[in-house]
Predict the structure.
Amino acid sequence: MELEGPPEQRSVVTLRDVAQESGVSISTVSRILDDRGAPSRTATATKVRAAAERLGYRRNVFASNLRRGATGTIGVLVPRLTDAVMALMFEAIERAARRQGYFAVVATCGDDADAERRATETLLDRGVDGLILATARIDDSLPASLRERGIPHVLVLRTDGVSPSALGDDETGGYLAVRHLLDLGHRDIAVVTGPWFTSSGQDRLRGAQKALAEAGIDLPDGRVISTGYGVDAGSEAGYALLRPEARPTAIFAANDNLAIGIIGAARNLGILPGQDLSIVGYNDIPLASRLPTPLTSVATPFDQIATTALDQLLSPQPAGVPIKRALPSLIPRASTSRIS
């Protein structure tokens, strides 16, 4: 339905209004007012821009993006936002996207492959320009499906070894954590790693094993627990490891939630973190430094990872180098101390 009244009295001025005012076609107005190219200096262009200014025309960026097959929106898929690491990662992605003129929208899917697929299709149905996935399992078929369909995507925090990925150097992080414990004199060290299906859990364990091997120390199977990344999983692992007859002097937990769960179990058993038991976490979430016994942790550079992921998603990547790792750093605190 056509709007009534002269253009200058309407709340929205259209290309049609500018075309009528300047006496040229709508397509000519659209081409002249498209600010993605070099501005035209012709008399017609000058007349069109003057008419647009006089009428108060404002370009509809969203509609323009739709016409050229882009919406200026990035879809981000995470298992859950109740996980502090995933919340920190999304916030970093949102900041990086905003700096480049994009809007980031998030969807969650738990650890369920079907839910992940449905959430992905929902984001794609809404016209996102690309996807950033923090959900990639080693056995996940989604990245391969996106590659086959030619859908721009980047994996963050984890990698399948093929799709473009931005993550921390988890092997180096695991090495730093256990090297710190070794430097404090610990020799009986346990590792509570993440789920077997995550590259991050496997890489952090590999780094821990490397540090122990350099020191000539074996890591028996009984000193390795693979579990989920939650606090409850850490608590269960803590009770399993902290039996009086076979207690390690130090534990490296592959994320801070696990470490917090272990600390809770230790306190319930009358074991003082930082005195009777040294504990190192991973990711350095904000809570880590605010615990009653501040947690030594390996800091993940979330903002650097997010910036790299956006660059990979929005810029053509050279073949053969799709995986980029950012170096983590160890933050020593009171939860670790020299062995008596």
